[in-house]
UniProtKB/TrEMBL annotation:
It is a multi-pass membrane protein. SUPFAM superfamilies: MetI-like. InterPro entries: MetI-like (IPR000515), MetI-like_sf (IPR035906). It is found in: Cell membrane. This is NitT/TauT family transport system permease protein. Residues 93-273 form the ABC transmembrane type-1 domain.
């Protein structure tokens, strides 16, 4: 190539020489296939909790909050320390955890089983769905005297009350999750010749799992409420019995200590379900 040819050749655009995209050229778009994924802010919850406790302590110390209505958080913490040191904490917390575990396990097992039946079988839906709809709005605490008559005042009535309270919301969440499974996935499985059992295990259950786990959060919160109600009737030990005794003696520090233990129990249950969700639903990305 001669010098004249080189002089006549057009100069390369500046964007080509610098590597920058040319004017009007399409810009690369970052991949957004992950959908809406909330980023973790683990510090926000503890910070808000500490801030509220600090305001509460400051208001109690300055006289803005009277101890006749709200005790100082430091006094509540002192009661908790006494319970821990004396061993009375586990004397009350141990029976409560046992009742919560047994009653919730019974209610969840029955609720998931019945919910799957309603979601998968038309005959079960026709017969059981109206029954569950009729039982759902019934206040479970109002049935405690009836459970005591049926099962006695011992542990059986407490298990039954918690199980029944967990049962109905679990049923609704389970068959709602089955109904919301994408039917095109089921038809795709049928077109590939999958058996009914394989479709249920590989498509329906994974698709319904988010709704089932969300229902478990609600069900277990109800279980804690019913646990306290059950322990207030005929229980010598338990967090509910401890709260009832503190309230009857107008011991606000002990009363709020019991409420704080129940709140911590609710946080622990929510944490465990969150870990279960991350383990079982990692396929969502």
């Amino acid at each position: 190539m001669t010098d004249a040819t080189l002089d006549a050749a057009p100069a390369a655009p500046a964007s080509a020489r610098t590597g920058a995209p040319a004017a009007g050229a399409p810009r690369p778009v970052p991949f957004r296939g992950g959908g809406f994924q909330p980023s973790g802010r683990a510090w926000a919850g503890p910070l808000l909790f500490v801030l509220l406790i600090g305001i509460w302590e400051w208001g109690s110390a300055s006289g803005w909050i009277t101890p006749l209505t709200l005790p100082r958080p430091s006094a509540v913490a002192a009661v908790f320390g006494e319970l821990w040191a004396s061993g009375r904490l586990w004397e009350h917390l141990g029976p409560s955890l046992g009742r919560l575990a047994v009653g919730s396990a019974l209610g969840l097992a029955a609720g998931i089983g019945v919910g799957l039946m309603i979601g998968l079988f038309s005959l079960a839906r026709a017969g059981l769905a109206p029954l569950v709809a009729a039982l759902f709005p019934v206040p479970k605490i109002a049935l405690l005297p009836l459970f005591v008559i049926w099962f006695g005042i011992d542990e059986a009535s407490k298990y039954a009350l918690i199980a029944f309270g967990v049962f109905t919301p679990t049923v609704v969440a389970t068959y709602g999750g089955v109904d919301n499974v994408d039917r095109s996935l089921i038809r795709m499985g049928q077109s590939f010749g999958l058996s009914w059992r394989s479709i249920v295990l590989k498509i329906v259950l994974p698709g319904a799992a988010p709704a089932i786990l969300s229902g478990m959060r609600v069900s277990l919160a109800i279980a804690i409420i019913l646990l306290v109600a059950a322990e207030m009737l005929g229980a010598e030990h338990g967090v509910g019995a401890f709260v009832l005794t503190a309230g009857s003696l107008y011991d606000l520090e002990s009363l709020f200590c019991g409420v704080a233990i129940l709140s911590a129990l609710g946080l622990a249950v929510s944490f465990l379900i969150g870990r279960l969700e991350r383990r079982l639903l990692d396929w969502r990305g």
